[in-house]
Backbone:
């Protein structure tokens, strides 16, 4: 499971942020309505974050998409949507969403960690390592610095091991013609 988004305050495909017509709209999912009623409503992003924290990624995704229909550059809604994609194992969409956040707010820690987590969960250890390291450069004292440091330590070993194994599997480079043998 992906790292939970921060308590208040995730490039989704444009289709994922399509506007939702209000006329003739079906009621929200019962979990969304019950959660909003229980917690006094709040912003769409805050409601979405609460749902996501309680394991309701699909319901939260609807709220983040609705928030993005109202304001397409809402960094908190993008981050939330990215974490919904992570929780539902849509890693490509999560990566796109977090990259969109980075294009709007370079250095945003939540999207950097989101990218690291998405690449790690997808199995791309080298890219995951790159983003954990980026987080530590951008936010060395950030709330996720401890997690980033432990992931860097783990992934550095795995990436080096994979590189060594790859070098052992590949043939030695060819020598240019005309060079004497060693």
Residues:
């Amino acid at each position: 499971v992906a790292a939970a988004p921060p308590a208040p305050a995730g490039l989704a495909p444009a289709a994922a942020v399509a506007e939702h017509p209000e006329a003739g709209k079906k009621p929200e999912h019962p979990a969304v309505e019950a959660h909003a009623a229980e917690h006094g409503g709040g912003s769409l992003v805050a409601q979405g974050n609460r749902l996501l924290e309680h394991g309701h990624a699909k319901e939260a995704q609807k709220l983040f998409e609705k928030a993005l229909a109202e304001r397409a550059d809402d960094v908190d809604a993008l981050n939330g949507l990215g974490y919904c994609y992570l929780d539902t194992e849509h890693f490509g969409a999560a990566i796109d969403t977090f990259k969109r956040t980075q294009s709007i707010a370079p250095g945003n820690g939540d999207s950097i960690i989101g990218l690291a987590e998405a690449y790690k969960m997808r199995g791309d250890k080298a890219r995951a390592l790159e983003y954990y390291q980026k987080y530590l450069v951008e936010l060395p004292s950030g709330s996720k610095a401890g997690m980033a440091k432990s992931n860097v330590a783990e992934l550095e070993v795995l990436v080096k091991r994979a590189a060594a194994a790859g070098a052992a599997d590949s043939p030695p480079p060819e020598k240019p013609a005309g060079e004497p043998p060693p």
About this structure: The chain has eight helices and no strands. The two ends are 53 Å apart (CA to CA).
